[in-house]
């Protein structure tokens, strides 16, 4: 990690402490201690297991994308990818550092940088597609509650969905309408050239063009393997499902045994979309606000609501930062590239 990254990490920890302190300002310490003492720790372990499965299943996806070109790429090496992604997503605005971090970690394991970039992009496409699919299910189940009880959040939810959907459309255009996309990108970049020097703009344009070419070539090859793509989609769907289930198990740990698992899970999908709108790393502030606003009806006790929110943030955000730092410190294992022989090339 660079010095800038370290300062960003420290800044996010300090900001998290400040937000937690602000959230606890109207909570009696005695009530909070009582709530902690009465927690069902078994349900908390289930919630912790869900976030573990979230990381683990993403590592399986990385392995599936890499294994046809590299042998000896272990689960340990693959697990470093989502953990590094969590760390750098959590300390950069709009989660912009996650993609470069994944490519860097894969490159450390001997994966060609171009191949690693393509894998990260394909993984991102599948992830975004499953986010949109989950959102459509959540809208059918939970939007009436959102519109009725928290109408002011409806606009944020739709805007979050629009951003994720636009990203999917843009990536699909690259995959299936390559020539049009190349021309469209050139047109979109014209206004950017007005504010940049010619050499820097040319460098930017070449870089974007190279990424589009790399992604297109890899996507064409990967989409031919429909079985693998279907497996990756199912695994990613399950990965997100485990993440979305975490608030439900936290509520069970609080003693709320009659909560509707489908409704709670659906509302967490909507929180995910709202959080993505906030430019602050980790959606700090927006995530806490969204959780307390959406789940206040299910957790009527204010002290338990704040405690549930803090546990949720520790599991879904701060744990990722901590594990990401460990992953970056772990010595990478080298994978071995599979070189196709002449016979294989002729068959293809």
Summarize the structure.
With 348 residues, this protein is mainly alpha-helical. The chain is built from 14 helices and 2 strands, in the order H-H-H-E-H-H-H-H-H-H-H-H-H-H-E-H. A two-stranded antiparallel ribbon has the order 1-2.
Describe the structure.
One of its GO terms (molecular function) is phosphatidylglycerol lysyltransferase activity. It is an enzyme of class 2 (transferase). Belongs to the LPG synthase family. Its EC number is 2.3.2.3. There is one protein chain. The chain is mainly alpha-helical. It has one domain (30-338). 79% of the residues lie in helices and 1% in strands. It contains 14 helices and 2 strands, in the order H-H-H-E-H-H-H-H-H-H-H-H-H-H-E-H. Strands 1-2 form a two-stranded antiparallel sheet. Helix 3 (41-66) packs across helix 4, helix 6 (113-149) crosses helix 11 (261-275) and helix 10 packs across helix 13 (302-329).
């Amino acid at each position: 990690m660079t010095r800038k990254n370290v300062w960003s990490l420290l800044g996010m920890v300090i900001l998290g402490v400040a937000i937690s302190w602000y959230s606890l300002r109207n909570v009696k310490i005695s009530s909070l201690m009582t709530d902690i003492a009465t927690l069902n720790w078994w349900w908390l372990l289930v919630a912790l297991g869900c976030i573990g499965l979230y990381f683990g299943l993403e590592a399986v996806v990385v392995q599936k994308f890499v294994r046809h070109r590299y042998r000896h790429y272990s689960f340990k090496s693959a697990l470093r990818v989502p953990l590094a992604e969590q760390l750098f997503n959590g300390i950069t605005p709009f989660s912009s550092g996650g993609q470069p971090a994944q490519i860097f970690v894969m490159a450390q394991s001997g994966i060609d940088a171009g191949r690693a970039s393509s894998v990260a992009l394909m993984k991102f496409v599948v992830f975004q597609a499953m986010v949109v699919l989950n959102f459509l299910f959540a809208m059918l189940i939970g939007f009436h509650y959102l519109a009725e009880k928290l109408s002011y959040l409806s606009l944020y939810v739709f805007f979050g969905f629009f951003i994720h959907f636009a990203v999917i459309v843009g990536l699909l255009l690259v995959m299936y309408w390559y020539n049009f996309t190349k021309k469209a990108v050139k047109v979109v970049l014209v206004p950017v050239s007005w504010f940049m020097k010619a050499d820097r703009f040319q460098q930017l344009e070449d870089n974007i063009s190279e990424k589009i070419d790399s992604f297109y070539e890899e996507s064409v090859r990967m989409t031919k393997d429909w079985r693998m793509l279907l497996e990756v989609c199912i695994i990613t769907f399950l990965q997100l499902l485990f993440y979305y289930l975490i608030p439900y198990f936290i509520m069970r740990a609080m003693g709320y045994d009659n909560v509707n698992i489908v409704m709670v899970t659906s509302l967490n999908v909507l929180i995910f979309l709202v959080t993505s709108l906030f430019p602050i790393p980790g959606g700090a502030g927006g995530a806490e606000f969204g959780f307390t606003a959406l789940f206040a009806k299910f957790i009527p006790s204010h002290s338990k609501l704040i405690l549930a929110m803090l546990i949720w943030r520790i599991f879904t955000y701060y744990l990722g930062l901590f594990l990401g730092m460990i992953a970056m410190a772990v010595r990478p294992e080298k994978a071995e590239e599979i070189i196709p022989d002449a016979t294989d090339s002729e068959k293809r």
